[in-house]
Amino acid sequence: MKSNKKHLSSGIAIGVVGTLVASAVVGVTIVYTGAYNVAATEDHQPLARWALETTMKTSVADRASSIEPPEFSVQMISSGGREYQAMCQHCHGGPGVEKSEWARGILPQPPHLPDVVTEWQAREVFWLVKHGVRMSAMPAFGPTHDDEQIWALTAFVMQLPGMTAQRYAEFGQGNSAAGHH
Ligand code: HEC
C-alpha cells in the first residue's frame, strides 16, 4: 500500500517534470527557429490581446494607487499643453488633430487620447507617462522629465475630453493666451 502511493507520487512528479521539459523545448524552439511572427502588422490572438490589455490596466492601477496628485493650476495646464503637442501629439493626436502618419503603423495602436482619458485617473496617467508601457511604443518620460513636468502633462491630459479644436490649438502658440479664456 505504502509503496503503491510512492509509485503514484513519483509518477506524478515525472509527469510534471516531463511537461515542464516539453514546454521548455517548445519555448526554446520558438526562440531559435523564428516560428513566432514579430511583425507589427500581425496582432496577438484575441485572448492574448485581452490578457495584455487587462494586465496593463491592473498593473498601472496597482502601482499608481499610492500616488497623490497635486492641485492643477492654470500655469501647469498651459505648460503641459505645449509639452503635449511636442511630445505626445505625434502618437496620440488631440482635439482636431490626427496622429502622425507613421504612428498609424504602431501596434498596439496608440489611442486617440481625448477618447480614452476618462478611463484613467490622474495618478494613473502620471504613472503611465513617467514609466511608459513595456513591449509597446509608449515611452517612459521619467528619464527625461522631472515629476513637476510630468504633473503638468497630466494636468493637461485630464482636460482633453470635451476640449475644442480651437482651444487645443491655442496651447501650441507658446504664449499665455490659453490661460485667459
Ligand atoms: C511613439 C508613440 C507614443 C508617444 C510619443 C507617446 N505615447 Fe502614449 N501610448 C503609446 C501607445 C502605443 C500606447 C498604448 C499602450 C498599450 O495599449 O499597451 C500608449 C498609451 C498611453 C496612455 C494609456 C491610454 C490607453 O488607454 O491605452 C496614456 C495616458 C498615454 N499613452 C499618454 C501619453 C502622453 C501624455 C504622452 C506624451 C508625454 C505619450 N503618451 C507619448 C504610444 C506613444
UniProtKB/TrEMBL annotation:
Gene3D superfamilies for the chain? Cytochrome c-like domain
What Pfam families does its record include? Answer: Cytochrome_CBB3
Question: Which keywords does this Swiss-Prot/TrEMBL entry list?
Answer: Heme, Iron, Membrane, Metal-binding, Transmembrane, Transmembrane helix
List residues of the Cytochrome c domain. Answer: 75-161
- The transmembrane residues are 12-35
Give GO MF terms, alphabetically. electron transfer activity; heme binding; metal ion binding
Q: Which InterPro entries is this protein grouped with?
A: Cyt_c-like_dom, Cyt_c-like_dom_sf
Keyword Transmembrane helix appears in the UniProt entry = yes
**Origin, by domain of life?**
Bacteria
Q: What is this protein called?
A: Cytochrome c
Organism per entry: Stutzerimonas marianensis
